[in-house]
Recover the amino acids of this structure.
């Protein structure tokens, strides 16, 4: 692995910068949970990141996805086919994983935004990394609904973390819809680490901003819900943010979420 690719978040938890996107390795002894897997073209990097921490692909107990965009599930199907690795996500995201439908930025949206700085080079790298390949995971399943937090009478998350999943690292699901309908972040309550996926990032090649922010609007299924999910995140007990894009951010999560809200275009 190149210098800086592996970032220690806490004991047994590392973020990996795969190139324009990140994934997380949670280890408990010899057992591993992978949170996201990068683009399809990052498979060798994914295996190298496991090896750098002393793990084999067979050690992966499950792939836990934040959401089913191709830059986050690129190796999930391969791991499932070759090693029988379970691929799990929020119940609302499972049909997306199986490609019953696709909620992802379209080529037309990218073309219309190609004049913006960074968009064209990012799009070329995404194509080279397999961004348009078929990454469906037909055998994907949902993590237990019992792990989800309680909901308000209106059906929205009440901001309280749910129960830890029975997986290495004990990640706690935090539903954060908006980027996709079933997007889910994961909290590591002991060390106070949030694996935010694309609900809250700290950088992207198509953005000039640095630090906590929402992704540009074209990437969200429902931008208003993505904004609303920041209110869920800002109530979580975490001071380390491990995003799906950009570097690790250290500082109170409520401030990070507030900064992202303030930077979001009106």
């Amino acid at each position: 692995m190149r210098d800086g690719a592996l970032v220690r978040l806490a004991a047994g938890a590392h973020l990996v910068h795969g190139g324009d996107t990140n994934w997380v390795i949670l280890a408990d002894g010899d057992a591993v949970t992978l949170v996201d897997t990068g683009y399809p073209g990052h498979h060798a990097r994914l295996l190298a990141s496991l090896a750098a921490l002393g793990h084999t692909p067979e050690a992966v107990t499950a792939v836990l996805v934040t959401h089913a965009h191709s830059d986050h599930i690129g190796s999930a199907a391969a791991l499932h086919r070759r090693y029988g690795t379970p691929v799990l996500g929020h119940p609302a995201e499972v049909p997306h994983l199986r490609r019953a439908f696709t909620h992802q930025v379209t080529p037309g949206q990218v073309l219309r935004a190609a004049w913006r700085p960074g968009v064209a080079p990012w799009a070329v790298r995404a194509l080279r990394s397999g961004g348009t390949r078929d990454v469906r995971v037909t055998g994907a399943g949902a993590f237990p609904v019992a792990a989800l937090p309680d909901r308000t009478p209106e059906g929205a998350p009440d901001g309280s973390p749910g129960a830890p999943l029975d997986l290495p690292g004990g990640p706690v699901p935090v539903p954060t819809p908006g980027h996709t309908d079933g997007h889910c972040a994961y909290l590591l309550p002991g060390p106070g680490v949030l694996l935010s996926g694309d609900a809250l990032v700290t950088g992207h090649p198509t953005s000039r901003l640095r630090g906590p922010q929402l992704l540009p609007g074209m990437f969200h299924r429902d931008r208003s819900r993505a904004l609303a999910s920041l209110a869920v995140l800002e109530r979580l007990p975490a001071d380390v943010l491990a995003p799906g894009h950009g570097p690790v951010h250290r500082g109170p999560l409520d401030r990070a979420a507030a900064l992202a809200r303030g930077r979001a275009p009106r």
Remarks:
- The chain has one domain: 6-263.
